[in-house]
Design brief:
200 residues; 5 helices; 4-stranded antiparallel sheet; alpha+beta
C-alpha cells in the first residue's frame, strides 16, 4: 500500500499579524489550477490596491511539484519564501496564501519581515478547515449491453459511483477510484473479456 491522500483547504481562511504599525493580512484559498491562482491574486490586488505589497506562495498537485513563491518587491526571500514554508510545514497542496502588507512607517529588517509573513500565513492556516482528499484514477469503460450486469457488479463491489454513463446497445461508463485500488479495479475489469478500459 502507498499513500494516496493529500491535504488541502476545505474553504477560504484569513489571518492577521501586526508589527510596528505594519499590518499583514493573510488570505488562504483552495485552488486547483494556475488560472485560479491568478484570479485570486488579481482580485486581491484590486480590492487592496492601496497596500504596499501582495506577497504570495502556492503549491499545486497531489505530488506538490508545481509551486511558486513571490516577494512582490519585498527584499528577496522575505515574503514568498516564508509563506511557502508554512504551506510545507502544514503539508498542504492545492492552496494559495496571499499576504497583503500595509506599511506602518517603521522598517522591520529582513528577519522581522520574514517572521511577519510567516506568522500571518500561519494564522490563516490556523483559521482554516483542512481536509484530506484521495488521489484518484479515472477510467472509461466501453462494453456491450449484455455485459452490463458483470460491470455493475464490479462497480458495486468496489463501492464506486459512476461519474457519467451512457447505456445503449454500446455502453460507456466513467469511474474514479482511489489510486491504491486502481490496479485491482483495472485487473477486475480486464478479466471481463468483452469490456474495454481506458485511463482518462
Amino acid at each position: 500500500m502507498f499513500d494516496d491522500t493529500y491535504r488541502t483547504l476545505g474553504g477560504p481562511a484569513e489571518g492577521l499579524y501586526k508589527e510596528k504599525g505594519s499590518k499583514f493580512l493573510a488570505f488562504a484559498y483552495p485552488v486547483r489550477t494556475a488560472d485560479e491562482v491568478k484570479t485570486h491574486l488579481e482580485r486581491l490586488r484590486k480590492e487592496y490596491f492601496d497596500a504596499r505589497h501582495h506577497c504570495h506562495a502556492y503549491i499545486l498537485g497531489p505530488t506538490k511539484d508545481a509551486w511558486r513563491a513571490n516577494d512582490d518587491g519585498e527584499p528577496s526571500g522575505t515574503g514568498g519564501r516564508p509563506i511557502y514554508g508554512q504551506l510545507l510545514s502544514a503539508d498542504l497542496t492545492d492552496t494559495i496564501i496571499v499576504v497583503v502588507r500595509y506599511f506602518g512607517g517603521i522598517l522591520l529588517g529582513a528577519s522581522g519581515l520574514a517572521n511577519a509573513y510567516k506568522t500571518a500565513a500561519r494564522d490563516a492556516i490556523d483559521h482554516a478547515t483542512i481536509v484530506e482528499k484521495t488521489i484518484d484514477v479515472r477510467y472509461r469503460l466501453f462494453f456491450e449491453y449484455a455485459a452490463m450486469n458483470d460491470v455493475m457488479r464490479i462497480v458495486k463491489d468496489f463501492g464506486l459511483k459512476p461519474e457519467s454513463q451512457l447505456f445503449d446497445l454500446d455502453c460507456r461508463l466513467d469511474l474514479s477510484v482511489r489510486q491504491s485500488e486502481s490496479v485491482r479495479l483495472y485487473d477486475a475489469i480486464t478479466n471481463l473479456r468483452t469490456v474495454r478500459i481506458e485511463i482518462l
